[in-house]
Design a protein that fits this description.
Layout lengths: L1 E7 L2 E6 L11 E10 L1 H7 L15 E8 L11 E4 L9 H4 L33 E4 L2 H4 L1 E3 L6 H4 L5 H12 L6 E5 L3 H12 L4 E6 L2 H9 L3 E4 L5 H7 L6 E6 L17 H9 E9 L13 H4 L7 H6 L3 E4 L8 H9 L11 E4 L3 H10 L7 E4 L1
Parallel strand pairs: 8-9, 8-11, 9-10, 11-12, 12-13, 14-15
Antiparallel strand pairs: 1-2, 3-4, 3-6, 3-15, 4-5, 5-7
Helix pairs in contact: 5-6, 8-9
């Protein structure tokens, strides 16, 4: 079968690899109909992780079940399904408590597993024609048959729940103001989710025109940090107080204000300055314990200079961590079905799998309007 294979920094190729097979009674094999390129994939693509050549990428996957293990009870051949990027067992302590992003079973010695991602277990990615899904009764979310809402449902694998998770981490409530740093797909989903939850005003901080335009189209207030300090811009629009809540949808590859130089802690420190005293921060943006391309020795070891003193002084609360997709995906699916949510507004390009190398290159460079790319095998 064809699959997107990592070759080295800034290089992927579509190659023939072995087709997955049933290895356990609880497995299914899914024929992939849609799979997305994620900003998290770019960290590996750029050589900013310990990923080694040969990884099959792809943790945002959906498709049609073609083969079932003998132990499957709730699924059948032909079911249309979408899978959380979290690979989870459903029965360990963390899964039982709802922390499926931190499963203790699927990646021994580590809390959490994912498809096609460095250090997240042996699970092949789904930027391919077929995908093996373990513990499939637990990991597959069934969808209505047909092809309606295809570009909405694929976003249930990661970015829609992850954006919503940012709001949960920050405990966004109706009537509050929210600052979202990062206007990429997760940031736009966080802003969209905050508005869905009744936020009175949502600011989206970025400098890419297409992202700021999409933010404005959904009713958020765009803040271009290349035009001035975003903390001051937001405070000018909040009577000098700042916002009630803040969300970091950027992570460790953040760029400093007025510069192209990476400053890994700049978003965290900006949020500390942006959010009012006793407010809360949600941090779904990715931070890693090891960054080979970090701008200094501390950053390379995942240690950043964060303004903890000011965070403490202001009595701010902070929630962090990757999304436990299964906490949200069923509810968000039903909102899509009922016409209450249409997250596909973030999708800019849909490409055949063979064009994945070009899609990666253009998405990584943020050119030609690339904001979110869906691949169709």
């Amino acid at each position: 079968m064809k699959a997107v294979v990592y070759k080295g920094p800034f290089s992927v190729a579509v190659e023939e690899v072995e087709k997955p097979r049933i290895q356990h009674p609880n497995d299914v094999i899914v024929r992939v109909t849609s799979t997305a390129i994620c900003g998290s994939d770019l960290h590996m693509y750029e050589g900013r992780t310990a990923a080694e050549p040969g990884i099959v990428f792809g943790h945002e996957n959906m498709g049609i079940i073609e083969e079932l293990g003998q132990g499957i009870t709730s699924l059948k051949e032909g079911d249309r399904v979408v899978m959380p990027f979290n690979v989870a067992c459903g029965f360990c302590m963390n899964c039982v408590e709802g922390f499926t992003g931190y499963c203790l079973t699927v990646n021994p010695g580590f809390a959490g597993g994912a498809y096609g991602y460095v250090a997240m277990g042996p699970w092949k990615g789904g930027q391919a024609e077929y995908l093996r899904v373990p513990y499939a009764d637990f990991n597959c979310l069934k969808l209505p048959p047909g092809n309606e809402h295809e570009s909405d449902f694929i976003l249930l694998a990661d970015i829609f729940p992850t954006g919503y998770h940012g709001c949960e981490l920050a405990q966004v409530r109706p009537g509050e103001s929210v600052a979202v740093y990062g206007g990429g797909p997760v940031g736009l989903m966080a802003a969209y989710s905050a508005l869905m939850r009744g936020a009175k005003k949502v600011f989206v901080v970025d400098r890419v025109p297409e992202r700021l335009q999409k933010a404005e189209e959904i009713g958020a207030v765009p803040v271009n940090f290349s035009e001035g300090n975003p903390i001051e811009q937001i405070k000018d629009q909040t009577e000098g107080i700042g916002t009630d809540k803040g969300i970091d949808a950027v992570g460790y590859q953040a760029t400093g204000h007025g510069t192209d130089r990476e400053e890994p802690a700049t978003v965290l420190n900006s949020l500390v300055g942006t959010v009012r005293a006793t407010g809360a921060l949600g941090v779904p943006g990715l931070y890693v314990p090891s960054d080979p391309g970090g701008p200094d020795e501390q950053a390379k070891q995942g240690m950043l200079l964060v303004s903890i003193g000011k965070l403490f002084e202001k009595g701010l609360r902070m929630g962090t961590g990757q999304c436990n997709v299964k906490r949200y995906n069923r509810y968000l699916r039903d909102m899509i079905i009922e016409g209450r949510a249409k997250p596909s507004f973030v999708v800019s390009h849909e490409l055949p799998l063979d064009q994945a190398p070009s899609g990666y290159d253009k998405f990584d460079k943020r050119i030609e309007g690339y904001t979110k790319v869906i691949l169709h095998p």
